[in-house]
Amino acid sequence: MPENIPVSTIMSTQLVILNTTDSLEKAERLFKKHNIRHIPVVEGQQKIVGMLSLTDLLRISFADGAYEDEEDIESVVYEMFTLSQVMAKKIRSVAPQTSVREVAELLAAKEFHAVPVVEDGNLVGIVTTTDLIKYLLKQYQ
Question: What are the CBS domain coordinates in residue numbering (predicted)?
Fold first, then answer.
């Protein structure tokens, strides 16, 4: 397996992002529309301030299919919290030149599954455990 491959070669650059002023309902729509599990949260254009995972959203939702009026219940719950209250604020980020191995070690050691890639203070990508698995599978072809 090649050594020192930069994470920039496997990171996602077609980013779905949220701003700190966005609603949790918008977040849910983006998760569903793009079939993703992590969304970086930014202030301004690209300054990363947090990460919202689908799991974070599900933790505050009372309705997981048990109620007929699930959308109404979720709307009420989502209005009780702000995005800033629900998102992870203490996030780790990596630079584009960080090796794939280093990112894999970071994700294996921590309890999160996505890392924002930041260059000069700006969000330029995101790498997830899925990106790492796809990369590893290519190594075996």
Answer: 11-70, 87-141
